[in-house]
Amino acid sequence: MEPKLVLLVFTLISATATCEYIRPPPRKTLHFPWDSKSSSHPQQVHISLAGDKNMRVSWVSNEKSSQSMVEYGTSPGRYSNRSQGESTSYSYLFYSSGKIHHTVIGPLEDNTVYYYRCGGEGPEYKLKTPPAEFPVMFAVAGDLGQTGWTKTTLDHIDRCKYDVHLLPGDLSYADYVQHRWDTFAELVEPLASTRPWMVTQGNHEKGKHHVLLRMGLTLLCSAHIQITMSTRISTTGSRADVAKVDRKKTPWLLVLFHVPWYNSNEAHQGEGDRMMAAMEPLLHAASVDIVLAGHVHAYERTERVNNGKLDPCGAVHITIGDGGKQRRFS
């Protein structure tokens, strides 16, 4: 059987009887009540892939003495394993973050539900690891922000069966307003604590150092995802590594970055040209299958293309930047 990859690509579409696209009107930015939690209970819990059979658990606590420890097991309330991680914090102008924890757990079994607790107290969470056999399912939505449409997109994703969420940049739209990272992380926690979220940097990830501290990820201009015959999923941001992928063992090779190279929308024309000139030959030589981008707040998919022309050996480019932040040009 041919290995099967399923992409659940989320966009917001309204259509008339003649199938003409009508862009839905913007929805208001979500407003969150002021929450001055003073306990060490975990907040903003999210997980990400951390190498073969490992998962990184990240969270924030307001208690400076809280531990960077995760207890986990395959039965509710019974934690047969424990991992110790590290913590950090940062300040920016008048803002001071809570204590930011990152702990890697594993090795974990494939396609298995684990129950876990952060910091030795607080609520129990559960996560599911990706499967060891095809199909593997990805949910993809970029440019989320924090609007009413963001909530709609998250609700759609939550109703689907998927293994990994891919987000090609522009997460919280915090820009330099740091507390917006706190509200965004609380907003996505119900999903991000149960399935790994793999993200790349967008133009609204202002203060890259702050994003790295929060997400516990290496945010690069691009990342590629290898899906091997045994559905081992690995990510890297190295250009050299793309060329080294063994395609006999890796039938699917996806690339994730923010600014699209192929774009028929009037917004953001030509912004990816320099990156495209430098990297498209590399992607073509590696026979990359799919390129996922955001930035343009719309959905668009190309045929297999390379160097601006149809090419049966080129990649399919998918722009999926309509996850929720519906300002027209950013």
Automatic annotation (TrEMBL):
Entry keyword Hydrolase: yes
Keyword NADP tagged: no
Signal peptide: 1-19
Pfam families reported for this sequence: Metallophos (PF00149), Pur_ac_phosph_N (PF16656)
Keywords tagged on the record: Glycoprotein, Hydrolase, Signal, Zinc
Cofactor(s) annotated in UniProt: Fe cation
InterPro entries cross-referenced by the UniProt entry: Calcineurin-like_PHP (IPR004843), Metallo-depent_PP-like (IPR029052), MPP_PAP (IPR041792), PAPs-like (IPR039331), PAPs_N (IPR015914), Purple_acid_Pase-like_N (IPR008963)
Reaction(s) catalysed (UniProt annotation): a phosphate monoester + H2O = an alcohol + phosphate
Domain Purple acid phosphatase N-terminal residue range list: 42-129
Family: Belongs to the metallophosphoesterase superfamily. Purple acid phosphatase family.
Name the UniProt record assigns to this protein: Purple acid phosphatase
